[in-house]
Amino acid sequence: MTASITRLNPPTMPDAAAAGYSQISIAEAGRIACISGQVAWTPDGSPVPAMLGGQAELVVRNAKAALAAIGATAKDLMIVRIYLVDLNETRLGELWPHIYDLFDGAQPSLTGIGVAALAGPDLQVEIEMTVRVPD
């Protein structure tokens, strides 16, 4: 039996569900996986796309591959942290469709962090995840 994750958006807090995530995620007892930050690197070493949208597409592909490697899906995400270089409203707007693709309607807890730089000079976005590993 796979235990579920309960999502909460208490009425005493801002309604995060309207934005596609949850204020609180509660996992039943089980194994938890911490997935390292995924960036726009490929297994074959292809160049990093110059545009944020291209990078976001690769980052989400890598994130989904990591989930699949442990038998998990978006519904198993507990919290996602997104690190974005030069975070602003325009860049967030460009990123959101890719994040919604990763979430696939699951609405995990979410933290967005604006940063000056990431692990490589060309990298613009990184996503790390905490996941409840399915039984």
TrEMBL record:
One of its GO terms (cellular component) is cytosol. InterPro entries: RutC-like_sf, YjgF/YER057c/UK114. It holds the Pfam family Ribonuc_L-PSP. GO terms for molecular function: deaminase activity. Belongs to the RutC family. This is Enamine deaminase RidA. It comes from Sphingopyxis witflariensis.
